[in-house]
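Pasting as-is:
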Amino acid sequence: MAWTPFPHPDPAFRYTPESLQQAWPGLHAGDREAFPAQPALVQAWIAFHAGEFERAARLGLDVGVNGYAVAHKAICMYTYYLEANDKRRLDTFECVAERCERQQQEQPDNPAGYYWHAYALGQYARGISVMKALAQGLGAKIKHSLDKAIRLEPLRADAHVALGVYHAEIIDKAGAMIGGLTYGAKKEEGYRQFQTALELNPDSAIARIQYARALRMLEGKKKAAEATALLEQALRCAVRDATERLDHDAAQQELKEEQQ
């Protein structure tokens, strides 16, 4: 399979091991990953931040389970933003989820194994339709993995974003009553998760984008101005690597669609 190249290569996204270590706290405020000890993983993260997602994935997978965090982040960001083929998207997210289940057995205290499991299953669910996924029991698996990721690393802002998305999408598709009674989904709890994420990672564009989507999904025109303001804030967030550039593009596209 040929991977689509990252469309905005930029020398500013090309870190050295030294500059990566200096920039690490800002780049990883969302996932709270520790700076890697293994040189191969440093190179994998350098490739990831530069938008060389295929190289990052291969370097991470070559290391084995200790490389799954960078490999899965590279694979998921690539697939979410750049993979156009629907079948490949579904197959890829399913594959990541399965590998995360193995990781959970080997590294039960590693929050990355639960977070990327939930993320991949969530994207898979969206691909087959959320209601179909709920009927297959995927909702409970996603919620369990996100809760576990947050228990292991309460400061992982990205997991709070994902939990906010979980509440919003279930209520949107199943309705407030069924969503609440059957899946424990609550609108206000979803909003609280987004707010927590922004407190933990104030410079997060993706937290603002997902919060704006949730507001539009659940409130419609009533919260349109608030959603627009969040997207405009996302455009002002720092762009320090390839994924943040793709987040910036997503915010720009959503604002454009709002204005049409």
